[in-house]
Amino acid sequence: MLALSGIRKTFNPGTVNEVRALQGVDLTIEPGSFVIVLGMNGSGKSTLLNAVAGSFYVDEGTIRLANHDVTKWPEHKRAKLIGRVFQNPFSGTAPTMSIAENFALASRRGHARGFGWALSPHLMKPLQERIATLKMGLEGRLDNAIGSLSGGQRQALTLLMATWLKPELLLLDEHTAALDPKSADQVIQLSDEVIQRDKLTTLMVTHSMQQAVSLGDRIIMMHRGRVLHDIRGAEKKRLRPEDLLDRFDEVRRRELLDESAAAMLNELYI
Amino acid sequence: MTLLIGALIIGLILSLLALGVLVSFRIFSMPDITTDGSITLGASIAAVLLVKGVNPVFATAAGAMGGAAAGAVTGILHTKFKINSLLAGILVMTALYSVNLHVMGRSNVPLMQATTVASYGENLGEWFAGGKTIHIFGWPVGAADAAVLVLALLFTALAGAAMFAFFRTQLGTAMRATGDNPQMIRALGANVELNIILGLALSNGFVALAGALLAQYQGFADAQMGIGMVVWGLASVIIGEALTGTRSLGLTIVGTIMGSVLFRLLVAIALRWGLNPNDLKLITALFVFAALVLPGFIDRFKPRPTSAT
Prior knowledge:
The complex is a heterodimer.
Chain A lengths: L1 E10 L7 E11 L4 E6 L5 H9 L6 E6 L2 E2 L5 H4 L3 E4 L13 H8 L14 H12 L18 H12 L6 E5 L7 H18 L3 E4 L3 H6 L3 E6 L2 E7 H6 L2 H29 L1
Parallel strand pairs in A: 3-8, 3-9, 6-7, 7-8
Antiparallel strand pairs in A: 1-2, 1-4, 4-5, 9-10
Helix pairs in contact in A: 5-6
Chain B lengths: L1 H26 L6 H18 L4 H24 L5 H20 L3 E3 L6 H13 L3 E4 L2 E4 H24 L3 H11 L1 H6 L4 H27 L1 E3 L6 H16 L4 H24 L7 H22 L8
Antiparallel strand pairs in B: 1-4, 2-3
Helix pairs in contact in B: 1-6, 1-9, 1-10, 1-11, 2-3, 2-4, 2-9, 3-4, 3-9, 5-6, 6-11, 7-9, 10-11, 10-12
């Protein structure tokens, strides 16, 4: 279970570049829940994921994950509990190392790394079988450098690596946004499969309304560093892409209203 | 012949330095200039201990440990204090200059009377050959020199194999991934900062080992002996990559050792042909410059495929 309470984060405080990225986020995610995170650019979606992953420490609030208070844990320590796939397909794999070596690294997530051989025979057989299920023809190329593969293949492998040891929480940060439509579909399908099979607690950021309505059991819409809508249960099942677009339009209208109000105040008082 | 064997031995000893530079420069993508200081540190620690009559193997190991400590300091400056890696190396290298003078107590420690690993090799060779000289392909060769050469070859091969094995362990692969993609390996739970510190310690440990052995072979440690050594290491790594390519780690390691020996041979030949020794560092630097720039330069003038099909 993931529990966030009163999370605040301001970047570059006290300067002209001050960004209040998270302004009090309270969120509880039950074990096995698959949550889609939506929001416009700058709404704080990715910042939220990075705060959970530990890319930075939050200014206020606490983060609890699987009965640990991880608020002060450094990123590499939280990795014991968290599997991640990044937006950039190049971010999740070590390009000059082989497919097998990348998985060997993933198979030690959260464990001490000692002087045992990285490529143990225990790893190779299940690895070959698992990669064969991708039907990408990669099972015979385990010794090839991962940098020679396409973005879609690398992202699929990153997903398998992130879930090789079952994580308490899976973070998917727009992990199909940089892929061509066909690869994106493949990776989405694979993600859904893995998440359903292992009943993974998942936070997935996306810009695709289609993905948002067809995947997961709960939608969170972020706006200005806060959770604006929280849609779940039967309402989530009924949801159509148009409904989501309406909600976005509503946010946009409110935004415009704010701007015109600010302009009016400017004219009146300054 | 003696000249050739000397060049080969020094090339082999310096290939340990080149392996150290391979770790910092290629695996962690950090040109680590601590090298210039740690090779001298390794030499001075070993020399001072040897003069005191300490066992040569122990003295050599102590020199290597000193270098590893220096590398760890550079790593800590870089990771914990967020100092640019190049500057961190410059700071430690500069500090080491004073440290080395303190260790030695003066700027030069001769090892003429001391028992060294080189004298082990020489004694072994003379005992094995049963005389002062042996004949290889009809050439008279000092038995002592030949034995030292064989020992240097064996030891270098062993060190290269050890490094290869290390980089295939769980810890070693995590270190390679740290240089390759820190974001990825952090997300997989490795401590990137610690890996960098350990990696620079390993790199400078190899460098200082080279320094300790070099001092024993040439018979002295000198405060100036480290100047320009990182560039020497880079040259060896680059020649090695030209020889064996960068396809696999094992080949790169073999190539680096070959590169160091080849470079030393070329230098020995050039010096014999009358190259002014004062120009040596300038030529080494120019060579590395050319090796770094030329590949991109040649690419620019290559005819490009008109369309990507």
